[in-house]
What does this fold into?
Amino acid sequence: MNRNGQVTIRDTGTSGADFGQRIFQMGCSRCGAVYGSYSGDVFQRKCPDCQDGSAGPVLV
It folds into this structure.
C-alpha cells in the first residue's frame, strides 16, 4: 500500500509506454475503485475517483 492508500493488485503483463515499464492494476482502500497505473507511478498514485488522481492507462 502506498502513502495514499492505494494497493497494487497485480501486474497485468502489459508493457507501458516507456522502456521496461509495466501496467499494474491498482485498487483504492478508501472507495474500492480499480484502475490502471504505470509501474513508475505506483508509489505516488492517488485514486482517480476519490482523491482527484489521474485516470491512468486503460486495463485490458
About this structure: Residues 1-60 form one domain. The two ends are 23 Å apart (CA to CA). The beta strands are 6-15, 22-28, 34-38. The chain has a mean pLDDT of 97.
